[in-house]
Amino acid sequence: MEINQFKEFVAALSPLAHIATVGPEGEPDVVPVHPCWEGDTLWFMSGTNSVKARNVAGNNQVALHWQVTESGDGAELWGTAEVFSDVETKRRLWDGLFDYDLSQFAPGGPDDSEGTGFVAITPTRALTIKKYGVDGMERWKA
Questions:
Q1: Adjacent-strand bridge partners of 33
Q2: Per-residue model confidence (pLDDT) at position 124
Q3: Which residues partner with 32 through β-bridges?
């Protein structure tokens, strides 16, 4: 499987995924996010002081899981994450990348949204599962 095949597969599953991060005490934390692809980088909006952003700052290894469909199709992705809060990155990502209005969460837009940033995930490996594995699994590795 190629990364583009993975991106097409998850697009058919759900716009939401759950990201797993690890806190400073070694405790896992899992929360839903609404990620979108820019090339081969997966991005999502986040508060810069959120638990997930703080966890990424201390341990950049993350995993994502897309909700399994009624037919049993699902996907997982592992990678390294980095939080960006600079205005240049916010301006670049603000319009056109995400399929929802970011101003719902940061009304000040990219120039007046202190405390808002974006998390970039560079994928290192991925897995697609069809029909709970009965119809096979495909793997991708960077």
A1: 17
A2: 98
A3: 18
The phi and psi torsions of 80 (rounded to 5 degrees) equal -110, 140
6: tokens are 């993975």
pTM of the full structure: 0.94
| pLDDT of 96 strictly over 90 | no
Longest dimension (CA), the chain: 49
Strands 116-129, 41-47: pairing kind = antiparallel
| End-to-end CA separation in angstroms for the chain | 11
* DSSP codes of every residue in 45-75: EEETTSHHHHHHHH--EEEEEEPPPTT--EE
Q: pLDDT tens for residues 13-56?
A: 999 999 999 999 999 999 999 999 999 999 999 999 999 999 99
Q: Where do runs of H (alpha helix) occur along the chain?
A: 3-11, 51-58, 87-94
- Distances, alpha carbon 50 to alpha carbons 4, 8, 30, 109, 125, in Å: 30, 29, 12, 18, 25
Q: What's the pLDDT score for residue 67?
A: 85
Amino acid at 81: A
- C-alpha to C-alpha distances, 9 to 4, 99, 136, nearest whole angstrom: 9, 17, 14
Beta bridge partners of 71: none
In the chain the domains, ranked by start, together with CATH numbers, are: 3-141 (2.30.110.10)
